[in-house]
Specification:
Helices cover 31% and strands 31% of the residues. A hairpin with a 3-residue loop joins strand 1 and strand 2. It has nine helices and nine strands. Helix 2 packs across helix 4 and helix 3 crosses helix 4. It is α+β, with helices and mostly antiparallel strands and 252 residues long.
């Protein structure tokens, strides 16, 4: 994969720019030249031979690109490019519809379902809401995927009073927002959200196929109707580096 790059831009082993930074820039250019395609990078050994540098240098370059969000790693499988459509998903609209519009294959697997649970204090703290704390919420934990690659772990708390006769099967393999509208006549309209960077816990890492401690982006949000009725409280954990950003009154 790197032969043509070496002819165009060989690695300088002396100078002001570290070799790992040079390798990182060449790899970055290659990833961007493929217009968002999702592909596996060569192994550290292959890159080491093709660039003529040590595996330590290659590892530094790959870690730098992973920190930038250009690539990501999967334990035991190697490094992969971060598809542009993954970066294009806002996290606010229907995940299913957004991924489909961007040309990807959305997926959702329920890993936990429960009823009559309280809204955790962390939700009220991050969303600055006095949401009900008594045990009257449906809890839906899902792993969201794009082209079979896990990109987010999502916990949704749904007020039970708004979703009578709800059951796990109703949320399997379908857009939650589509089900809300079709079954209960609930139309998501606005969302208030808070973004924050964090390090993946062992549990989160397992679901997302990343290393524990890897950078993640946590998005806390509350979704309301056009009459300001709260219909959903969500914590989404996304792969990759993050930043903190408060988003208010985002039109759905």
């Amino acid at each position: 994969m790197t032969e043509t790059w070496l002819k165009k831009k060989p690695i300088r082993k002396s100078g002001a720019v570290p070799m790992y930074a040079q390798v990182a820039e060449i790899l970055d250019t290659e990833v961007k030249s493929r217009n968002g395609a999702h592909f596996a990078l060569p192994s550290e050994g292959e890159l080491s031979r093709e660039f003529g540098v040590s595996r330590v240098t290659i590892r530094q370059a790959l870690k730098q690109l992973e920190t930038r969000g250009v690539i990501y790693s999967e334990h035991g499988r190697g490094y992969f490019s971060t598809a542009s459509r993954m970066r294009g998903v806002s996290g606010f609209h229907s995940f299913t519809r957004e991924v489909q519009k961007l040309g990807g294959k959305p997926g959702s697997t329920i890993v936990a379902y429960d009823e009559k649970q309280p809204l955790p204090p962390a939700f009220r703290k991050h969303l600055q809401t006095e949401g009900e704390s008594k045990p009257d919420f449906i809890v839906l934990r899902r792993v969201r995927t794009i082209d079979d690659d896990p990109v987010a772990l999502e916990d949704a708390y749904l007020p039970m009073a708004l979703y009578p006769s709800a059951n796990r099967a109703m949320f399997e393999g379908a857009s939650l927002y589509t089900e809300m509208t079709a079954t209960w006549g609930i139309v998501p309209t606005w969302t208030d959200a808070l973004f924050e960077p964090a390090a993946a816990t062992a549990e989160e890492a397992g679901h997302l196929r990343i290393e524990p401690g890897a950078p993640i982006l946590i998005v806390w949000r509350v979704t309301v109707t056009d009459t300001d009725q709260a219909i959903e409280y969500v914590k989404s954990v996304y792969k990759g580096d993050g930043f903190m950003l408060n988003v208010n009154r985002y039109r759905l």
